[in-house]
């Protein structure tokens, strides 16, 4: 019996049974990709779609008529409608597939237990439908590591635990801070005209980072070698920089702006009152620890086209600039109201 979360025993294929370490050319594996309309799953889907001799993509979404789903279909993915809360829809999505890239989501309802259930549902459906390899976007258990609750990472650690128990062949990837956060949640914000703050509470410690796009290439490499990466946890990163070094890279790429790094500590961050501040503080406390040091050398082996932060920022300058401008407008309109 599987002990995790009271789920009962189900039929599954023994790990690694009859699988070769290479996917034969011309016999593409069908990969079910979760989060394909989002950043991470989208990067995985795009990487796999570039190699149709080895992979077919089944992109999972709850909203098949969304613009992102339509774009994926144009790019060659088969769009399947499923919801991680609904096992029947998951089983239908996995019928006849070979492998799955699983990412789960926390921020919509900010509920750790619900995210765990969604992850377990997807794993159960994959096991039931006989998928032979699951690549999961997992995490260390932050609560256990440093004693601080971190819903969005502790949930992924619990799902990892279940994945290990069910006996299916799996590979876990553990990611660092994404470069893309600099045009989303952690975009530099204007503190006065021409001066922008990067307030990451790393307290002088370096931050491991990667572009989510490059994660796509890593996952493709892993999915092509299910036997070789069987039951492994791979800690991925492309660059390791202090917040001051990050600010210097920003200054180099945006010479008309000044970037500063306010000395914010985790204990200051914990006191912020925006939703999720406490767990982001816990995440940064974890990032400060040695446990969050990722393996850049290994990651380069998985994807030889890894971008340094400097290279990424050079390529994505327009997107980042627009996000900074958007943030500035928001700050100014809040001041007016
Ligand atoms: N390491 C980092 O710096 C970092 C940064 C950001 C995020 N993350 C983590 O990476 C993961 C992916 O984040 P993301 O930014 O790529 O996500 P995102 O862009 O916000 O997209 C969310 C995706 O999840 C899908 N989804 C949500 N709930 C679902 C459900 N119940 N059933 C099926 N699909 C569902 C959505 O599909 P539809 O809406 O099309 O159904 C969408 O594709 C998350 O776990 C997040 O915590 C890590």
Features:
337 residues; alpha/beta; 2 domains; 7-stranded parallel sheet; 3-stranded mixed sheet; 13 helices; globular; disordered N terminus
Measured as a percent range, the helix fraction is: 40-55%
CATH fold description of the largest domain: Rossmann fold
- The topology string of helices and strands comes to EHEHEHEHEHHEEEEEHEEHEHHHHH
Number of strands: 13
Instruction: Flag low-confidence runs.
Output: 1-6, 8-21
Which class of secondary structure composition applies to the elements?
Answer: alpha/beta
Oligomer: single chain
Small molecules bound: NADP nicotinamide-adenine-dinucleotide phosphate
Query: Widest sheet: strand order?
Result: 3-2-1-4-5-6-11
Cα radius of gyration in angstroms = 20 Å
For the sheet with most strands, the description reads: 7 strands, parallel
Pfam family, one: NmrA
Keywords: NADP
Organism: Dreissena polymorpha
Family: Belongs to the NmrA-type oxidoreductase family.
Layout: helices, strands, pairs:
Elements: E1 29-33, H1 39-49, E2 55-61, H2 67-74, E3 78-81, H3 87-94, E4 99-102, H4 112-128, E5 133-138, H5 142-146, H6 151-166, E6 170-174, E7 177-178, E8 189-192, E9 195-197, E10 207-210, H7 212-223, E11 232-235, E12 239-241, H8 243-253, E13 258-260, H9 266-269, H10 277-288, H11 296-302, H12 309-315, H13 317-336
Parallel strand pairs: 1-2, 1-4, 2-3, 4-5, 5-6, 6-11, 7-10, 9-13
Antiparallel strand pairs: 8-9, 10-12
Helix pairs in contact: 1-7, 3-4, 4-6, 8-12
Bound molecules: NADP nicotinamide-adenine-dinucleotide phosphate.
NADP nicotinamide-adenine-dinucleotide phosphate binds near residues 41 and 137.
């Amino acid at each position: 019996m599987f002990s995790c979360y009271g789920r009962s025993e189900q039929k599954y294929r023994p790990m690694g049974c009859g699988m070769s370490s290479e996917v034969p050319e011309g016999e593409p594996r069908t990969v079910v990709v979760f989060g394909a309309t989002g950043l991470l799953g989208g990067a995985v889907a795009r990487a796999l779609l570039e190699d149709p001799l080895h992979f077919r993509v089944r992109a999972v979404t709850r909203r098949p008529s969304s613009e992102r789903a339509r774009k994926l279909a144009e790019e060659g993915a088969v769009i399947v409608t499923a919801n991680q809360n609904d096992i029947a829809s998951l089983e239908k999505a996995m019928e006849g597939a070979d492998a799955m890239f699983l990412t789960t989501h926390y921020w919509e309802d900010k509920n750790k237990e619900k995210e765990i259930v969604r992850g377990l549902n997807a794993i159960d459906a994959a096991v039931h439908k006989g998928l032979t390899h699951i690549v999961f976007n997992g995490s260390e258990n932050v609560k256990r590591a440093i004693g601080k609750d971190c819903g969005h990472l502790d949930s992924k650690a619990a799902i990892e635990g279940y994945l290990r128990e069910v006996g299916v062949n799996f590979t876990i990837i553990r990611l660092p801070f994404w470069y893309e956060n600099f045009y989303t949640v952690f975009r530099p914000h204007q503190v006065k005209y021409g001066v922008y703050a990067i307030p990451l509470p790393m307290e002088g410690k370096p931050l491991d980072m990667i572009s989510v796009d490059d994660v796509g290439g890593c996952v493709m490499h892993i999915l092509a070698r299910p036997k070789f990466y069987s039951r492994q946890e791979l800690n991925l990163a492309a660059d390791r920089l202090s917040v001051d070094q990050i600010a210097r890279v920003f200054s180099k790429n945006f010479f008309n702006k000044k970037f500063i790094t306010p000395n914010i500590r985790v204990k200051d961050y914990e006191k912020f009152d925006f939703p999720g501040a406490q767990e982001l503080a816990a995440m940064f406390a974890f990032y400060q620890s040695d446990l969050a040091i990722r393996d850049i050398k290994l990651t380069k082996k998985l994807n030889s086209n890894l971008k340094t932060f400097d290279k990424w920022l050079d390529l994505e300058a327009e997107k980042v600039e627009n996000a900074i401008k958007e943030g500035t407008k928001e700050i100014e309109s809040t001041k007016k109201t």
